[in-house]
Amino acid sequence: TTRLLAQANLSHSRLSKFLENLTGSGLINKIEYDGKNTFVITPKGRQYLEDYMKFSNVAGAFGLEL
Question: Which pLDDT band holds residue 48 (cuts at 50, 70, 90)?
Answer without folding.
Answer: very high
